[in-house]
Request: fold
Amino acid sequence: MSAKLRVGVLGLSHDHVWENVQTLVDRDDVELVGAAEPREELRHKFLAEFEIDAVVDHEALLDKSDLDAVYVFSSNREGASLAVAAAERGLHVLIEKPMAASLSQADAMLAAARRNNVRLMVNWPFAWWPQLQHALRLADEGAVGDLWQVKYRAAHAGPQELGCSPAFCDWLFDPQLNGGGALMDYCCYGAVLARVLMGVPNRVTALTGRFCKENITVEDNAFLGMTYPRGMATAEGSWTQIGKLTSYTTALYGSAGTLLVEPRNGGRLLLATADDPEGSEVEVPRAAEHLTNSAAHFVHGIRTGEEFQSLCQDRVCRDTQEILEGGLQSVEAGSEISLPLVI
Reply:
């Protein structure tokens, strides 16, 4: 591997791409080689942002002999195929959450990474919140006793209302390209938290509906319930919530305490116990450099061979995809679904 990690970008239709690529080019140990994207307007934007021409066809970028790794920021369905194609060429892969549009795609990605001995990292925007990282450590250390519930709500007024680009909305509202609607896009966060903290559930139940938006065909609200032998987890996703109250808040309930994680960088971490029922703020230590953003973590993992943090590990995210697929099956069947799924 060269002194600088040489990275290409496959797909520019996911709006998270711009921030994540910027953190990549800000590093002096990485070289951004180029991008591949069929949409002309996005290629023009890439050129304007990074002063590098983007090509139309991903094969042209993948065939560069000096690539070390790729970022994948396409639709969930297309991104899974691009990730497999990259892994088959021996390239390390970072892909945006949730990982794929279906469990079979996630399994194919995992198999390709193992077969070709490459690293596969799934990026979750909230993985870089230091207060969430610390909450996961505290829960793992038993700070709240035996964990019996994980709860997370992801919500905003809708992709268009939030200002998402037309290219992003085009596939978010397509159940084949996204894998669903609000359930796949936003319940995935609570599902991966549950998988990290409590493991794979025994059963899942989901409720979805298109309650407010008449201009889309997928669900605009979703609820995913996960049942464990001695606990449960809930994931809520909404594209119709007005205001930010309750959005992106994590609650971890244990036999000896409760942890509340406020969202975004700067959010507080609060701990309530029997002796302090109102809760007090917990001091959050400064995150190590390789835990501050996706680029730092990806490069660190490739250079050192260390495991990615739990939220970003490919096997964890593959299991999260199974939880989500169980939720979709629950909606279709109108009943609870047992895991593991029968494939």
